[in-house]
Amino acid sequence: xxxxxxxxxxxxxxxxxxxxxxxxxxxLTVLSLAPAILIMCTCxxxxxxxxxxxxxxxxxxxxxxAQVTLALSMFMTFLVMAPTFDRIHAEAIVPxxxxxxxxxxxxxxxxxxxxxxxxxAQIDASDNWSSVYMILNHRGIDTSEPEKLxxxxxxxxxxxxxxxxxELKTSFLLGFRVYLPFLVIDLVISCLLISMSMMMLxxxxxxxxxxxxxxxxxxxWQLVVGGLMEGVAKxxxxxx
Length: 240
Fold this sequence. Notes:
By secondary structure, the chain is mainly α. The chain has 9 helices and no strands.
């Protein structure tokens, strides 16, 4: 027995039909792809962009630090993705651990279906099917009659970039809504300074305390974070 096989058998739950070496290879592959999956198949990009725009709208370029917004976006992503991760565990990992799904192709199909349902739910909620049709057209698939297309016709190679485009569009729309109130404050402060002939005084220096005060009074962090998480469409069940 090799050292790799011994290591594989020491990993709890690895009792599938594959050898110990392949078990470890699958585990390392999933861990190496985890950052890419987090970016391409979840709402992490949406959360990070909106929080970054919020920080820019407040005028505090370095506060909170980038590490804080990144960590907050990750925790928010884990919260909204928890039902999808639970489905992946129940439909893919558990059958693999018990030996019911030892075929790698079956394991991949079981694992990707909950992610596909989640991505389709977000595209449906934001009505961003145009990005799906655009990529299908680029790949040479006829979309002149979209009503005849089913979700099974959209493979992962098409769905992932379409989902990312949908998330980028949604995040910038949400960022605009977050940015607008602070822009109004900047305009009001600028008009007041001009009317008082204080044009040499930077408006940001005056507007920043008012923006921070307004944000604290309305409990802005709870409103923004809660609104972002509530804006993620729920997946009722496996899509057809």
